[in-house]
TrEMBL record:
Belongs to the iron/ascorbate-dependent oxidoreductase family. The keyword Nucleotidyltransferase does not apply. It comes from the Eukaryota. Gene3D superfamilies: B-lactam Antibiotic, Isopenicillin N Synthase, Chain. Keywords: Iron, Metal-binding, Oxidoreductase, Vitamin C. Residues 282-381 form the Fe2OG dioxygenase domain. PROSITE patterns: FE2OG_OXY. Signal peptide: none annotated. Pfam families: 2OG-FeII_Oxy, DIOX_N. GO terms for molecular function: 2-oxoglutarate-dependent dioxygenase activity; L-ascorbic acid binding; metal ion binding. This is 1-aminocyclopropane-1-carboxylate oxidase-like protein 1. Coiled coil: none annotated.
Amino acid sequence: MAAAAVYRRTPRGGGQKTVMKHSWSDDVLDADEQLLITNWVRAQIESMMPIRPIKPNRTELDSTSPPIPDEDKHIHEKNKLKSFQSQSQEFDDTKAGVKGLVDAGVAKIPKFFVHPAESLRAPSETTLELPTIDFEGVESGGARRKEVVEEIRTAAGKWGFFRIVNHGVPLHIMDAMLEAIKRFHEQPVEDKMHLYSADSRQRVRFNSNVPQREYDSACWRDILTCVFHDDQLDPDAIPLVCRKEVQEYVKCMIKLREIMAELLSEALGLSSDHLSRIECMKSEALACLYYPICPEPDKTLGTPKHSDTTFLTLLMQDSIGGLQILYDNQWVDVPPVRGALIANIGDLMQIISNDKFISVEHRVLAQPVGPRISVASFFTPSLRAGAKPFAPIKEILSDANPAIYREFLFKEYYEYYKTKGQDVTSALPHFRINE
Ligand SMILES: O=C(O)CCC(=O)C(=O)O
């Protein structure tokens, strides 16, 4: 493995910067590097922000605007930008999120929520069905486990997404979590606004989404984020209205993550404990999403097209629907199935699996019904694993299967997202080795 700057804790607990070879024993991250990991989670949450590859004129988004005479265009553009900025700023200042707009009775969505026509809903043209994998009997090993591992290998390699049933997370815990998240978002604004923040250092925060640039669009949803580094989060930081449920749910997610880590390792032909040993999924961020009913669902999106920047996501959705994945260049609906969870591969898992597993783009349509509640558990490395380089796992490489990606540090990965902003859908091409 390549040498890289890391921090080694001295016996007295002080931090001292050294350049050393990575070992799995005693590397730790200092506060700045921990912040990088926190920012990574933010990169994931932000990747769920709208991405617009080319800069359209905002008037193109508003089909009702009359044509503007050439001589007035400059002033018009300036006013438009000002009104865009003040509108989105005003929205942000309410700290009430999209739910606040709905409560205020808006019949038309503000312009900064309008997306260009080409990224909006189109009827799904396919009857393709996401694979469903039944985990019943997987713990007992033997032929049943082999079958499940084979199904995971195929689904993760072909779809990047699959449903899981009989996963061991009790239905009452899932239902209670969905109810608690609804309760959090539906409490009076005064009771949740103290958590409203875009500051990624805040491990628990509530926010909506405000476009950073005039040509970005916002999405019709609000998020409560809870970040557990190395599976830990001070319980007192979690809002009381959902504290018990979040704690119980995350315990189940951690248990299921361990099972997934074993099965994915086996599906890659590695020893069962490989992914757990490298701690690539030892932290989790819960994105607790609230998609209010939308008065103009054909003009905006709940979550824009993106792939997950992390290793693995486990998603729970309620019964409303709207999730779609891009399979073979077609949007495929992923209708909710009661009690099922959805697993999806993230970009970093695609990299370390050397493309044996794929990270697939997905989105959520805005709905005329709602609210829709979903909880995405994004799995990221432990703080110490986050300081080590990422690269395709060498045990799966061979002359016939050489590394497709180069080695890189997380810092570079994060910086890439930071400098590219919302203009990038995936960092994979950047780290791919060009022949
Ligand atoms: O709300 C959902 O169903 C999907 C959230 C999402 O985009 C994700 O899990 O990455």
